[in-house]
Amino acid sequence: xxxxxxxxLQGDVREHLIALASADAVARQVRRPEELAEVDGLVIPGGxxxxxxxxxxxxxMTEPLRERVRSGMPVYGTCAGLIMLADKILDPRSGxxxxxxxxxxxxxxxxxxxxxxFEASVELRGVVDGPVEGVFIRAPWVESVGAEVExxxxxxxxxVAVRQGNALATSFHPELTGxxxxxxxxxxxxxxxx
Length: 194
Ligand code: GLN
What we know:
194 residues; Rossmann fold; lyase; EC 3.5.1.2; 6 helices; seven-stranded mixed sheet; alpha/beta; Pyridoxal 5'-phosphate synthase glutaminase subunit PdxT; binds glutamine
């Protein structure tokens, strides 16, 4: 089985490890460049993207991560992880830098105060057997995408899942449900690139 890392600087790492393991991958935490070098794919979890970006810099991970994403390592970002994969954020906090990899502009905390956290059924292109339950927690949405980006899902008129080459991202958190079909899709991407 392919070895898939979960970036373990901050965020809901454990849930992703469990979801990946049940989707037939060997899952392990990644915190250092040496650990990153050993994985076939990487998940960037949900959490807080400003903190995650600062910790990535502190751990000397920003450039190694950019390098591997640029060279085509399969990567999947959920929520804060989607923000990390954006080439551009509309409202970055000071000191917040993304890794990039997906030609998209992202709006953080986009669904607003009234609707900070909610669940909604989402049809996701590439996932068969019906919609997935989307858990949205202070979720971003994708404001716009470039020509190379495939939109996989929209909710309420906003883009909430995308793919560009080997990079996959969702605004919501499939790792918080018992349904691991989205992780299965990512494991298939890793196998195809393996
Ligand atoms: N709002 C968070 C951020 O900007 C993302 C929230 C999440 O990952 N659940 O990073």
